[in-house]
Design brief:
Rossmann fold
Length: about 180
């Protein structure tokens, strides 16, 4: 395991690229990668969707808060969070205080374009997923911004371009040394 204490967390709407970008960012920085949703599913012993349907959102958020608390205390790495991780004040505080937070900012329309055929996301299994994404965006965008140290516009660049943009921001802020 890399002894680098650098900790980075990716936040944003479901489908904004947190896992995909986080995994590539971790590879580039030679850091371990953790997807909090996978860690939560390991803890639960079932999919988040099943748990969500059986126990409800509040119980899921309790488990999520506990797992994020543990993950943000671990030494260096890149963490991708669930889209709703910022809903709890404790999560926002822990993420912001314990690492560098990257908000992958995507418009609801952009996310809808990416996710329109994805059946695995419980919050989008509704009659009008685009309206649901717009509601999520209105509620969560201020929370993502409050939590984040950096906001990266996802737009349509490739994953590699997004990773380069994040690394450039981290270098400019002096979080990581600039590579000559």
């Amino acid at each position: 395991m890399n002894s680098n204490p650098l900790k980075i967390a990716c936040v944003g709407l479901p489908g904004s690229g947190k896992s995909t970008v986080g995994r590539q960012l971790a590879r580039r920085l030679q850091l371990p990668f953790v997807d909090s949703d996978h860690a939560i599913e390991e803890r639960l012993g079932c999919s988040i969707r099943q748990y969500f349907e059986r126990e409800g959102e509040e119980r899921f958020r309790d488990v999520e808060e506990s797992v994020l608390d543990e993950l943000t205390l671990q030494p260096g790495g890149v963490l991708s969070t669930g889209g709703g991780a910022v809903l709890r004040p404790a999560n926002r505080e822990n993420l912001h205080a314990r690492g560098q937070v990257i908000y992958l900012h995507s418009s609801p329309e952009e996310v809808f374009r990416r996710l329109r055929h994805d059946q695995s996301r419980p919050l989008l299994q509704v009659a009008d997923p685009l309206a649901r994404l717009r509601d999520l965006y209105r509620a969560r965008d201020p929370l993502y911004r409050e939590t984040a140290h950096f906001v990266i516009e996802t737009g349509r660049p490739s994953v590699a371009t997004l990773v380069n943009m994040i690394i450039m921001q981290l270098e400019l802020a002096g979080v990581i040394p600039a590579v000559p």
